[in-house]
Specification:
The chain is built from 4 helices and 2 strands. It is mainly alpha-helical and 86 residues long. The chain folds into 2 domains: 38 residues, no CATH class; 47 residues, no CATH class. A hairpin with a 2-residue loop joins strand 1 and strand 2. The longest helix has 24 residues. 3% of the residues are buried.
């Protein structure tokens, strides 16, 4: 399943909606081992930041909150990697 404009569709439907001319296999569509993630709403991002105990400006734009959440997740991955070395 693929996410296109926030909804999940089949690979064929995703190609049609995205206007892809050449047919690609699902493995080719996924680059660097990362599947396309569905978009989160601002409320979902705020809830996730709050659950992680992170402080943020409630008036911040969605893009700023996404950046903060991405940085927090990257820091968690880095901390887990450091912990695995020990």
């Amino acid at each position: 399943m693929y996410s296109v404009n926030g909804r999940y569709v089949s690979a064929a439907e995703a190609r049609r909606l995205r206007g892809l001319d050449k047919k690609e296999t699902p493995a080719e569509e996924i680059q660097d081992g990362e599947a396309e993630q569905p978009k989160k709403t601002k409320k979902e991002i705020v809830d996730e930041l709050t659950a992680k105990g992170l402080e943020f400006d409630p008036k911040a734009k969605k893009e700023e909150l996404e950046t903060l959440l991405s940085a927090a997740l990257a820091a968690e991955v880095e901390a887990d990697a450091e912990e695995a070395k020990v």
